[in-house]
Amino acid sequence: MATAAARWNHVWVGTETGILKGVNLQRKQAANFTAGGQPRREESVSALCWGAGGETQILVGCADRTVKHFSTEDGIFQGQRHCPGGEGTFRGLAQADGTIITCVDSGILRVWHDNDNDKDISSDPLLEVRVGPGVCRMRQDPAYPHVVATGGKENALKMWDLQGSEEPVFRAKNVRNDWLDLRVPIWDQDIQFLPGSQKLVTCTGYHQVRVYDPASPQRRPVLETTYGEYPLTAMTLTPGGNSVIVGNTHGQLAEIDLRQGRLLGCLKGLAGSVRGLQCHPSKPLLASCGLDRVLRIHRIQNPRGLEHKDEPREPQEPNKVPLEDKETDELWASLEAAAKRKLSDLEQTQGALQTRRRKKKRPGSTSP
């Protein structure tokens, strides 16, 4: 693949077949990149992150527990690091100070030397932290790369300083029991650090959006709101950090204000469950992808606007109407014809009744 084909891509997406896709939105073209030349299900991409020092390198976390380094300048994979331990796929991936941070489903968070190709560097992890089972997301603090947050199903939000102790520096406390005095279940699906503050925001599998302040002694959410009726699966901060955009299992997208907890608007959704959301750091643009295998670019200022759509193209016969549409049209046509016949019969019956009434009122009429 040519260097320019990688350098000028605007959006990067990982697939379940192990392909890293670069999408050029101006040309509306997508380029495929694989480490071995052929897609492999064993290399299914479960996590992506930028390498330290800019957007010249992408770290790709795969199902076989390898972390691959991809150069956006050269358009090639430049090495990989095997990161075993624990069970499940990567639920978070980050790079900091020459190290790689990984976290898997079973709750094993490990810190590794970044370069596994150097024979003088040990293949053992530098640090291992057990963050609890059922992890759904590990997220790095952009302002402090050695600080991460974790959360999951029945695994409350925690914040860790990987340069400090192996105990969390913040552990969220569950909300109070509901109105039936029943315990409220925990299911943090995604986490974001709010810029310019110590606060964190989470979205849950029970369609809640919560803001936490580690400086608050109560350790419970300082703000909570809900959206829709379905599990929230992904979340991203808008430019400025005053709101988040969340997506759920039914493909719905919405922007939530983090100052008042109110719904600011809904965006054109997906045809399947949302799997990834990412706002541009400065422009009002949102990239979304999900189970429908379509990458969409939304303009946030226009809540229903869709800037661009990239999806797999399949050859279609010209002017061919889908079978479902034909059947639907035929059904409506038959219903309309039946309705017209019924209306005509009714009008004829009413006309006959009125004629009989007029005849009956005439003097000397012998009509029955």
From TrEMBL:
Keywords: Methylation, Nucleus, Phosphoprotein, Repeat, WD repeat. SUPFAM superfamilies: WD40 repeat-like. Residues 302-330, 342-368 are annotated as: Disordered. Its main location: nucleus. InterPro entries: WD40/YVTN_repeat-like_dom_sf, WD40_repeat_dom_sf, WD40_rpt, WDR74/Nsa1. Residues 305-325 have a biased composition (Basic and acidic residues). Isoform 1 interacts (through WDR repeats) with NVL; the interaction is independent of RNA or pre-60S ribosome particles. Isoform 2 does not interact with NVL. Interacts with MTREX; the interaction dissociation in a late stage of rRNA synthesis is required for appropriate maturation of pre-60S particles and depends on the ATPase activity of NVL. This is WD repeat-containing protein 74. It comes from Aotus nancymaae (Ma's night monkey). The gene is WDR74.
